What we know:
Residues 1-56 are annotated as: Disordered. Residues 149-168 bind DNA. By secondary structure, this protein is mainly alpha-helical. 50% of the residues lie in helices and 10% in strands. It has 3 domains: 57-107, no CATH class; 129-168, Arc Repressor Mutant, subunit A; 185-341, Tetracycline Repressor, domain 2 (Orthogonal Bundle). It is built from 13 helices and 5 strands. A 3-stranded antiparallel sheet has the order 1-4-3, with no helix packed on it. The protein is elongated, with a radius of gyration of 47 Å.
Amino acid sequence: MRSTCSGGVRSPTRERRARPGRWRWTGRTVRRRRSAPERARTGHPRRPARRGRRPVQWWTTGSSACSCQRDRVGRGDQIHRTERRSFSTNIVLLTNSVRDKYSVRVTPEPLPRQPWLRSGRSPRRQLSLESIIEAALELLSTDGLDAVTMRKVAQRLDTGAASLYAYVRDKAELHELMLDEVMRELEVPEPDPECWQQQLKQVGLQVTRLMASRPGIARIALETLIPTTPHTLDKMDQMLALLLAGGLSADDAVVGADILSLYVAAGAYEQARQTSERAAHEAAERIDKIRDYLQLVPAGRLPHLIALAPAMARQGPHGYELGLDLIIDGLAARAARTAAVD
């Protein structure tokens, strides 16, 4: 169907093919649409700016974040004044025409958190190998060695047990790291060949004191076959240096260090058990039972045990120190024989 210039109908297909920038048939008289580059070259904006209108003035009292939105409404050019109150902020809006309507939304400052709603839990401790060992030692002091498990240490750190396995392989390794942390506090002097026996005794007493102060550490030391942690190896090396300074051979020094380690750990384990009132009461009751039983033994049976029973009942810290002297004196005699042979 053909179209005429007096308002005929244009073919829809042909109208869709009309390219931008050309005259298009829309059934009425239209102007040619100019492109953006053409409008920029001529300097004429697409819509001329209005003149003779005063800018909108608005005031707020108080400090709050606000957002404004304008709508086109009504007609006329009279002054329109709006006053609105939102929370504790007064908003006064003044415009020169009712054709522009401004709506203001005020967001008040957030209220502080109520102190009674705050959690009573302490902030979460940053997870690291040092924090894990520290938490395990705290749990050891309060609940004992049997309570030191991966799950309970994780609960003390406010985390899951799976998070600990990124730092520690298992519970046995955790116990060995606890022993290593305690041994870090041990101070071993520089070897002196003139007084190595006194130095060795002081080191043994210090190790016993450190282990006895933390019940359970001596048990870990006795259960650890070969220590592999850095501080423990360092202290063993320094103790071997003391034995070698005394003139012992390599084999004698290794065996002597092993015997001293076992003795001081056993002494610390016994002292840690005797610190509690219950253990001391049980020990006293057991001694009384043995004394009463020995009185019922027929004559000629257990003669040495009966004769030394009073001396055995007097054993305590003094007996431990005496045993340490016996071991060190034996090592000194061994060193003297080795020197005489050489």
